[in-house]
Design goal:
The complex is a heterodimer of chains A (305) and B (216). With 305 residues, chain A is of the alpha+beta class. Chain A folds into two domains: 188 residues, no CATH class; 96 residues, 2-Layer Sandwich (Alpha-Beta Plaits), CATH 3.30.70. Chain A contains ten helices and four strands. In chain A, helix 2 packs antiparallel against helix 7, helix 2 crosses helix 9 and helix 7 packs across helix 10. The longest helix of chain A is centred in the last third of the chain and has 44 residues. The radius of gyration of chain A is 32 Å and the shape is elongated. The two termini of chain A are 37 Å apart. Chain B is of the alpha/beta class and 216 residues long. Chain B contains seven helices and ten strands. In chain B, strand 1 and strand 2 form a beta hairpin. In chain B, helix 3 packs across helix 4, helix 3 packs parallel to helix 5 and helix 4 packs across helix 5. Chain B is globular and about 45 Å long. Chain B starts with a strand and ends with a strand. The chains are: A alpha+beta (305), B alpha/beta (216). At the A-B interface, helix 1 and helix 8 of A face helix 2 and helix 3 of B.
Chain lengths: 305, 216
């Protein structure tokens, strides 16, 4: 109980100190807010993008090029075998002759084809995977199809999806790195603020120690100061990222519309916001803790007086 | 209560503040440490609450040899010792009441009890009506009395005062000494460092005289 009330009073006291130097403290928290908001915005945008590639409705069809040695009954048997696979909704068999005819019709190169002694087209089975498959599940399915006897090669019409995934992966790595750097920045900013705070209140700390304040007691207001910086900075980051996302949501959605995508950018709501705030508090507490452990022990009433 | 045994203190740089001092202060005693400035009076007082550690010898407070005391235990030692300084050492940005309440806040006293004890201490030094004041608005004598109220508010068995009347005129000095006598009468052990020989002599308590870091 006594422990509890001491913490409450330290927390309130630290808030009072925060308010006493409001301007400079608000500047510090704004720096924290911006440093947290930047990676938060990128992470949210990437989360949104990653969602598109997950629930993308235009699942690509896989084209299976069959070996030429396969007879027509064998091709039909293979199609039945593929239709029975889990993850395949259906398939179309395009025979070698049909393929040649279609090509000739579309390109008008029938005469050129006739010059060839052999039909250059293999038979193809166009298989459609289940639309709910995740990208990695699709890839797994493709491998499975390629391993079937009589299948020479499998091509998945998904370059667009792969490019998007690669871009998302690249961007999320970059965001991760930038986020880590900014996290370090937050720790240092808070650490430095608390260090200055400790220097400003040196005589107060000395007096506290002089009349029997334990290390924990002396430390507490500074750690709580870090807590408040993180909390306020984190809330600011939440607000900033919500504003930014709201501002860019409309053009982003219009762009998505141009690509026939149902993609809609959504902002940081409760769970994301709480994560941002919690991250801010955690980083600031770390910064405060570093400053306190480095500087507080050195201030002793016995030295230099 | 307090025992010095062959205590020496050498500061970095080779300055010997104390050169092997032994003496004892029994419980309920009021002792003056006198001597010219630089004789080691402050150092002697500072060894008791472990503001300094001796280079040699041992200091024993309340049957505890201070050399065995770990860093973590020091705050609890200091809570049993009230300290009064020539420069008061008050927090300028807190009211008189908050300054006096500090030792109780540190010790985790409950709010009501804190209020009661702070008022009692301020009443004792005659500053009850100034509890809401800023320390800077008080006179030197009043500030010193706030410092005394802070030192006694947690009712420590030992009081140390380092030149408590150094900046005060004779009448105010006399007043402060009367306060100390009152505390002594209720059983508090006091050690007071002072170079005001005239005053000390007139009061007639036991004296420990220091010259150049040694007992004379």
């Amino acid at each position: 109980m006594r422990f509890f009330t001491q913490h409450i009073s330290a927390a309130i006291g630290a808030l009072g100190e925060f308010q006493r130097r409001l301007t400079s403290n608000l500047m510090t928290t704004t720096v924290i807010g911006i440093a947290l908001a930047l990676p938060a915005i990128f992470i949210l945008a990437l989360d949104n993008l990653a969602e598109i590639s997950q629930d993308w409705d235009g699942t690509p069809s896989a084209n299976l090029y069959l070996e030429r040695t396969l007879s027509e009954p064998e091709q039909a048997a293979l199609q039945t075998q593929i239709d029975e696979l889990a993850g395949i909704t259906g398939s179309i068999l395009i025979g070698a002759e049909q393929g040649k005819t279609t090509f000739a019709e579309r390109t008008g190169m029938a005469e050129m084809l006739n010059l060839l002694e052999e039909n250059p087209f293999p038979a193809v089975i166009q298989a459609t995977p289940v639309s709910t498959l995740a990208p990695n599940e699709v890839a797994e399915l493709v491998n499975q199809l390629a391993d079937l006897p009589g299948v020479e090669d499998v091509r998945l019409d998904q370059t667009w999806l792969q490019r998007l995934q690669t871009i998302v992966e690249l961007a999320s790595r970059a965001t991760g790195l930038i986020g880590a750097l900014l996290a370090i920045a937050v720790v240092l900013v808070v650490g430095n603020t608390i260090r200055l705070d400790i220097e400003n209140r040196r005589s107060e700390i000395e007096i506290m120690k002089l009349i029997g304040g334990t290390d924990a007691f002396v430390r507490r207001p500074f750690v709580y100061a870090g807590f408040w910086h993180g909390l306020i900075g984190g809330m600011l980051a939440w607000i900033l990222s919500a504003i930014v996302i709201t501002v860019i949501a409309r053009p982003a959605n219009r762009l998505a519309g141009l690509y026939d995508s149902g993609f809609a950018l959504s902002g940081p709501w409760l769970a994301d916001g709480l994560t941002i705030v919690a991250t801010g508090v955690l980083l600031s507490l770390t910064g405060a803790w570093v400053a306190v452990t480095q500087h507080l022990r050195r201030i002793e009433p016995g030295e230099g007086t | 209560m307090i025992r010095f045994h062959g205590v020496a203190k050498r500061y970095p740089g080779g300055n010997d503040a104390l050169r092997g001092i032994s003496f004892e202060v029994t419980q309920g005693e009021m002792v003056f440490v006198t001597g010219p400035s630089g004789a080691g009076k402050s150092t002697l007082l500072r060894l008791i609450p472990l503001l300094e550690r001796p280079t040699r010898g041992s200091v024993i407070v309340n049957d505890v040899n201070l050399s065995t005391l770990t860093r973590r235990r020091i705050p609890y030692l200091r809570r049993s010792i009230g300290m009064i300084f020539q420069d008061h050492r008050l927090l300028p940005d807190r009211s008189v009441f908050d300054n006096v309440a500090l030792p109780l806040v540190i010790a985790g006293f409950e709010h009501k009890e804190t209020q009661r004890r702070v008022r009692a201490a301020l009443d004792k030094v005659g500053l009850l009506e100034r509890e809401r004041s800023d320390p800077a608005t008080l006179s030197g004598g009043e500030q010193q009395r706030v410092g005394i109220a802070r030192a006694v508010v947690s009712r420590p068995p030992i009081l140390l005062a380092d030149e408590p009347t150094g900046n005060l005129d004779p009448a105010l000095s006399e007043e402060i000494m009367r306060l100390f006598e009152q505390f002594n009468r209720v059983g508090v052990t006091l050690i007071i460092a002072s170079h005001d020989h005239a005053l000390v002599e007139r009061l007639g308590y036991r004296r420990v005289h220091l010259t150049d870091g040694a007992l004379a």
